[in-house]
Amino acid sequence: MAKDRVIALDLDEEAPLSEPQQAYFDKCVEKLGMVPNVLRAYAFNPDKLDAFTAMYNDLMLADSALSKLEREMIAVVVSSVNRCFYCLTAHGAAVRQLSGNPELGELMVMNYRAADLTPRERAMLDFAWKLTESPEAVDEPDRQALRDAGFSDRDIWDIAAVAGFFNMSNRVAIATDMRPNAEYHGMARG
Question: Which residues touch 130 (CB under 8 Å, ≥6 apart)?
């Protein structure tokens, strides 16, 4: 197995990028020092790449009452339930970086319940965990617990949307044996 392999599927990884897609990849290199392998994996099909990046950017970067750190924490907790190596590695690094706390990133990956969380964060992550592990059991008391922690109904939508997106992403990453960029392993460790 090649060391720089992105996924286990033999897809056409040489599909030409559009100008906006190339600009997006160039921006990733500028900001991160690399093109995340998840983007390289989707690059075999320009329409799928655009759909993925549009949804990711909307959920993770657009205006929301949820901070970028909170959204990354949701991504890691969902990925922890699903045991998604790619997303635990990539988004664990993001939690370390955004929080300035390497230990928090590791706790999110291993067991968020052991972390020193605010009641708001704990309620949010408990909801994301339950929505991932047993979605059929989510009901009004779960939504009310979020409201009681200070979340609006719009915030609950955002929490659910981020959790839902990462459940989908986890399954694609796991099914294709997507591998995280090596750079993620050493990011923001202190």
Answer: 137, 138, 142
Three-class SS state of 177: coil
Q: Please provide residue 32's backbone torsions phi and psi, each rounded to the nearest 5 degrees.
A: -110, -20
Q: What is the pTM of this model?
A: 0.95
In a domain, 8, yes or no: no
Domain harbouring 53, CATH code: 1.20.5.810
Residues 153 and 98 in one domain: yes
Phi, psi of 120 (to 5 degrees): -60, -50
Chain position carrying tokens 């989908």: 168
DSSP 112: G
pLDDT per residue as tens digits for the range 7-56: 999 987 667 899 999 999 999 999 999 999 999 999 999 999 999 999 99
Domain of residue 107, CATH code: 1.20.1290.10
Residue span of the structural domain in which 120 resides: 68-175
Tell me the pLDDT tens digit for each residue of 49-92: 999 999 999 999 999 999 999 999 999 999 999 999 999 999 99
Rounded Cα distance, 108 and 96, in Å: 9
